[in-house]
Amino acid sequence: MSDQLRGWLRTVVPAAWSTIVALLVTAGAPAELTAPLGDAGAAVVVPLVLAAVYAAFRKIEPRLPPWVTWLLLGFNTALSYEPPAVDEPDPGRHRAA
Q1: What is the largest CA-CA distance in the chain?
Q2: pTM for this structure?
Q3: Measuring CA to CA, how many Å separate 65 from each of 20, 73, 88, 89?
Q4: Less packed terminus of the chain by CB within 10 Å, N or C?
Q5: What is the mean pLDDT of residues 41-50?
Q6: What is the mean pLDDT of the chain?
Q7: What CA–CA distance (Å, rounded) separates 97 from 76?
Q8: Which DSSP symbol is given to 75?
Q9: Do 25 and 48 meet the contact criterion of CB atoms below 8 Å apart?
C-alpha cells in the first residue's frame, strides 16, 4: 500500500469517527448548550471533536492491538516522512540552462 493511501486513510478514518461522535454529542446535548450556537453548532462542534478524538487516538495508539488501530485510524503503523535524497534535484525548481 502506498504512503499516500495510508496517509489518506489515517486522515479520513479518524475524521469519520469524529463526525459520528460529534453527531451523537449534538443529538444528545441539552438545548441550553446547543441553542447559543444556532445554525453554527455542527460547524463548531465537529472540528473541536475531530481535534479531541484524533489527539486521543494518537495518544492511545501505541497501547492498542493492531486490529483496533486499523479500526480507529485506518492503518496500524504511523507514516514516516523521509526528506528527499540530496543528489536528487528538487522537481519544483528550474535549472539554469
Answers
A1: 67
A2: 0.60
A3: 22, 12, 38, 41
A4: C
A5: 75
A6: 77
A7: 46
A8: S
A9: no
